Amino acid sequence: MFEKHYRELKHFLLNRLRDHDLAADAAQECFSRAVAMQHEGAAVLDPRALLFKIANNWLIDEHRKQSSRPELMSLEEEQKHGYLPSATQHVDPEQIASANQQLDKLLTIINELPPRCREAFILFKFDGLSYQEIAQRMHISPRTVEMQLRIAMAACIKGLEYSNLPD
């Protein structure tokens, strides 16, 4: 079944996803689901039709996930939106001192995160890995990666807001 339909299925997914790695991962997921259905005793009369139905459902699920929750921004996006200064912006010494204090506070917050949460955060923010890459590296699901990153971001935001309160 794999050899017969993989190429066509991957091409189908690639046309919709526009990402070779994601299409390959999605195709593998479709095959895994089809094999699981067979092992559960489901009668598969047309394996090709089953694979494409699974792929279509997978695409719909992914679209729903993406549209129902915003992704965390990468460092480049944060800089593009003005959340981080670019190399060409002039920064005065007071801003540098304040930024250093914020950075020290942020590093303390990151170091106090639970180990798996800290690891996911560092892989995403500093190493620039995607949810899928982090999930593979940490042997967890992409959904767990998302939850760990949300916990980390909430801790960072809360900690930085708390440190900015007037005395």
Could you characterize what this model shows?
The protein has 167 residues and is mostly helical. Keywords: Sigma factor, Transcription, Transcription regulation.
Brief sketch in words of this structure:
It is built from 8 helices and no strands. The chain is mainly α. The termini are far apart.
Key phrases:
mainly alpha; 0% strand
Which structural class fits the helix and strand makeup? mainly alpha
The share of residues in extended strands comes to under 5%
Average pLDDT for all residues: 81
Q: Summarize the biggest pleated sheet.
A: none
What kind of oligomer do you see? single chain
Note the overall shape.
elongated
What is the end-to-end distance?
67 Å
Q: What is the percent of helical residues? A: over 70%
Uncertain segments: none
| Number of H/I helices | 8
What are the secondary-structure elements, in order, as H or E? HHHHHHHH
| Rg from alpha-carbon coordinates | 21 Å
E-strand count: 0
What is this structure's SSE topology?
Elements: H1 2-17, H2 20-39, H3 47-68, H4 75-80, H5 93-111, H6 115-125, H7 131-138, H8 142-163
Helix pairs in contact: 1-2, 1-3, 2-3, 5-8, 6-8, 7-8
